[in-house]
């Protein structure tokens, strides 16, 4: 039966439900066991390939990872099957127990947080792929066993259960985080590829048994079945061998580049990117003659003019294939001169890179002083050199990160020579990969295990690019997707850290505001009056704290707020009573209110009574000073409505009013760059704007609070060069903009 909300109501189980349920379980287990086996095999292959690429020897970390994974892979598959059977059994038991759906409120151990996040990613991917089909399948499961629709989430083939089976399989298994991550990703791919068959086989016996036959079951999106691993490798090798035999080397390389660029032909070239690129090239062509000779002569390079070098017009101009060959010869081992240029403030990375290329021309049978680089290719190499010059000097990279980034110079120079669209479209895979790598390592000090894992993933990505990039731009796409998936997992932790930072800042500001309002109320009542020290201490320590807590918990409109203010007014008025002896009794009449104030600070029982007695005695001995006729009376209302004062003196700040207006409209989520101790600039993100003080809170890439300022203070930082504002959010675009800025500065 269906209720008014469209949910399935509890009913009797279908006749023969045991046999149907067992049939579905058997078919599901058979298929899901194959899914798990495929995921394990894919992970094993991945680890083996890494060992092959870096020629890992005995005792190397990569080889140890492979051995460790192989030692536990059988246990993982066995535990997966057990977790699957347990899931089916747990849902079956609900028929007998009749309990209400359980709510999982268990705490997650910090050691398991990575697996939880990985499982969440699998859950989301499965839901995107086949959410409607899974929902229909869950409804049939509930109807088969006579359970209410509320139990759909507990279905053994729900998106969450399918992810949790792998999490259960890894319980007690010791594997590094990056291997667990890769296993989850391979499991996700294998599972989604098999979802169509899995859900069809699960629904078929239930429909035949008459379980909700009218329920439309949307067909899952089918994916092509993955081919057997041996076949494509053999076929590809045979095709490659026949192509190499039939086509000359230079023609083959040209054909390969045309094919690769054809695959990228749908990348949009933005007019803004094209205009920026042309402007940079114009400045570059004017900059090169003025700076190249001096830089080359300083480095002792082959580009230096003079001597017996042939005139430029008589030199052999390198073809694109020759330029690519020279860069390829430098890819695995960065020349020392290029590496040194990246750490020397007075050296040109572009010039050093070109000198190193020309120095390698003997490897292709040409004399270094008799060749020159084609202008278009030289533009590409120069721009990449300048790009990394800015990256290394202006971004917040520690020394290890700088060395890692330096290994990207040659692959990116080669990519730029192969495809100028690297500078013309934001969607270029090489751009996206550089953005992902910068996000992973910029500002990352490796303080915690997650940060170190992220650095390790970035290093592995660079290793793969350096080892595997020939002339196939597609490798950037593959590596970017892997890196981005890893970052998506890491970003969940960052989001949690950012949320905690916002909550902490919000709480801190509310407390500051509450204390300020309490102090204002006290100031309105006492002014410059000289109260007895005991009573002054009571107000400044206990009463203001009590008032702050009322503001935080109940607000200024609450009855408790009014009671606390009246207590202060009554206690102050007692000081003027005559005769003085009457003040003791008056204070005792206020005892209940005073005890309430003291209890909020933890002063109870005998301590409270002793303090009240001291207050009474101080009141009795108090002699009021003569009133000044010039002193105006103040009221509680005027103090409460006075509002917050600024935490700084705006008149002492030096800023441009236009910057203030800009920062007032800065949206949450916007990124800026702030000067840091190493001379570079670190990215900071606007995470929260205080509704109380209007101050802006910024976090770093790890979600940690690093700056809380007013818009005026932010404008002053910008004016004094401590803050960089970018129109673009991505590192590549920001760096190109800074390259243009440097070129313009050279001509100013």
TrEMBL record:
- Classification via InterPro entries: DUF1631
Coiled-coil residue windows: 487-514
Q: Which UniProt keywords apply?
A: Coiled coil
* Any single Pfam family the record assigns to this protein: DUF1631
Judging by the UniProt lineage, the source's domain of life is Bacteria
Disordered: region residues: 214-259
Instruction: Quote the protein name from its UniProt record.
Output: DUF1631 domain-containing protein
Query: Which species does this protein come from?
Result: Arenimonas maotaiensis
